[in-house]
Automatic annotation (TrEMBL):
<feature type="transmembrane region" description="Helical">
    <location>
        <begin position="117"/>
        <end position="134"/>
    </location>
</feature>
<keyword id="KW-0812">Transmembrane</keyword>
<feature type="transmembrane region" description="Helical">
    <location>
        <begin position="222"/>
        <end position="240"/>
    </location>
</feature>
<feature type="transmembrane region" description="Helical">
    <location>
        <begin position="317"/>
        <end position="340"/>
    </location>
</feature>
<feature type="transmembrane region" description="Helical">
    <location>
        <begin position="146"/>
        <end position="166"/>
    </location>
</feature>
<keyword id="KW-0472">Membrane</keyword>
<keyword id="KW-1133">Transmembrane helix</keyword>
<feature type="transmembrane region" description="Helical">
    <location>
        <begin position="352"/>
        <end position="373"/>
    </location>
</feature>
<feature type="transmembrane region" description="Helical">
    <location>
        <begin position="66"/>
        <end position="85"/>
    </location>
</feature>
<protein>
    <recommendedName>
        <fullName>DUF4153 domain-containing protein</fullName>
    </recommendedName>
</protein>
<feature type="transmembrane region" description="Helical">
    <location>
        <begin position="186"/>
        <end position="210"/>
    </location>
</feature>
<feature type="transmembrane region" description="Helical">
    <location>
        <begin position="284"/>
        <end position="305"/>
    </location>
</feature>
<feature type="transmembrane region" description="Helical">
    <location>
        <begin position="92"/>
        <end position="111"/>
    </location>
</feature>
<feature type="transmembrane region" description="Helical">
    <location>
        <begin position="393"/>
        <end position="413"/>
    </location>
</feature>
<feature type="transmembrane region" description="Helical">
    <location>
        <begin position="252"/>
        <end position="272"/>
    </location>
</feature>
Length: 414
């Protein structure tokens, strides 16, 4: 980072890209370099920008607040559409849960990032076609392909959100790292808002109970549902207008839980071996392991995002490397179980989907583990790890497209 800043000190656009890709690292590197470059006019401007500390909380412009309010109202209406149009909730929500918030978030970032109009039209058409397609799929209670499509469609919409967040252009320097950090901040802010809403709900219901009014049904059907629909939009807005509010929380949480996850997984591997239980016949085992793999990937990324330098955080990087190795072993066990089930009972949509997901996660873990080993042994910067985390996202998006749009046709909607 130091060399990049010095080499491009007269290139404002490149410095801005560096800053947005990794704000904490940029700030730290710039502060250490500033005594050497303080006579440079652009460096002085950056110093003032990074040193600025506004009084109080910023709530954005009035126009921003109006847009967020309108988007929240639209999300609430979409969440209540079954009640408005007398639709079956069991049919509507599984298929359309992703369309309540993601299109609005995509529209918000398209507006904020000034995405080209042609790109915005293409995104709108893709989402419209996806909505028509998912609601066209035949309704069958035992259709595995329908369930898989409903589960993977939000993942594909999430990838469209990432594309929009990075400016709506396919570039090598796209800010995918910033998008991943946004997701961590969004999770933290959403959790905080959920706690606040839960407390407000408990107080409100009990206050009305004191005067003999039972408002639980009304409150749950309207206030709670509408609030949950608007929550991602409000949380997103807060992360954008107050980037310092939760920017350091997710890396801290990840770094605190990484040692715990490593110890827990090691103990579990030993316990699993000692128990003698045949895990190859247990579907819950495979589902749990897949969730575990995704959680570990999140821990590794957000820990790296909060790591300043290799020299100062060698122990943390070593923990992450060991965590990736242990997770690769667990992924290998899960993968062998999937292959065993396919060999014994044949291929099914569920087994094909889990097999593909595990292969992708295994490849991603191998790449990240290799980068962690390189950075730890060579004492280089952390950018190879961050890039290996971010550049694999389009692969997951492509797999989601296959599961959503190809699996139902390939397996005859079974």
């Amino acid at each position: 980072m130091h060399n990049d800043i010095l080499a491009h000190l007269d290139n404002p656009q490149y410095l801005e890209q560096l800053y947005r890709a990794d704000k904490p690292a940029f700030r730290k590197a710039f502060d250490s370099l500033y005594p050497q470059i303080e006579n440079n006019l652009l460096a002085k401007a950056w110093h003032e920008r990074l040193s600025y500390n506004p009084d109080g909380l910023s709530w954005g412009t009035p126009r921003d607040r109006v847009v967020v309010l309108l988007a929240s109202v639209v999300a609430a209406l979409l969440a209540k559409l079954p009640a408005i149009l007398s639709l079956a909730p069991g049919y509507y929500y599984p298929r359309n849960i992703g369309f309540i918030a993601f299109p609005l978030l995509i529209g918000y970032f398209a507006w904020k990032q000034t995405v080209p109009r042609q790109t915005g039209i293409v995104l709108a058409v893709l989402m419209g076609l996806a909505a028509v397609y998912i609601n066209w799929l035949p309704q069958a209670p035992t259709s595995d392909t329908l369930i898989l499509a409903c589960l993977h469609l939000p993942l594909w919409l999430w990838s469209l959100l990432g594309f929009t967040f990075t400016g709506g252009r396919l570039r090598r320097d796209a800010n995918w790292l910033g998008f991943l950090r946004y997701n961590g901040e969004l999770v933290v802010m959403t959790a905080v808002l959920l706690l606040a809403c839960g407390l407000a709900t408990a107080i409100t219901i009990n206050l009305f109970n004191l005067i003999g009014w039972n408002i639980i049904g009304f409150y749950s059907n309207y206030v709670v549902i509408c609030s949950l629909a608007a929550l991602p939009i409000v949380a997103t807005y807060l992360t954008q207008v107050q980037p310092a509010l939760v920017g350091k929380v997710s890396p801290v949480i990840a770094r605190l839980f990484s040692p715990f996850a490593l110890v827990m997984l090691l103990i579990y591997l030993v316990a699993m071996t000692a128990s003698g239980k045949n895990l190859y016949h247990d579907r819950a085992f495979l589902l749990l392991f897949n969730g575990l793999l995704v959680g570990v990937m999140a821990l590794i990324f957000f820990s790296v995002a909060g790591t300043g330098s290799v020299h100062q955080n060698r122990v943390q990087l070593l923990i992450l490397f060991l965590l990736s190795i242990v997770t690769i072993l667990i992924n290998g066990i899960a993968l062998s179980a999937i292959l065993f089930r396919i060999a014994e009972w044949g291929i099914t949509p569920n087994r094909a989907a889990v097999l593909g997901s595990n292969v992708l996660i295994l490849c991603h873990l191998l790449l990240v583990g290799f980068r962690l080993w390189q950075v730890t042994t060579r004492r280089s910067d952390l950018s190879p790890i961050s890039r290996s985390m971010a550049y694999f996202l389009p692969v997951y998006s492509a797999w989601a497209v296959v599961v959503v749009f190809v699996f139902p046709l390939l397996f005859g909607f079974k």
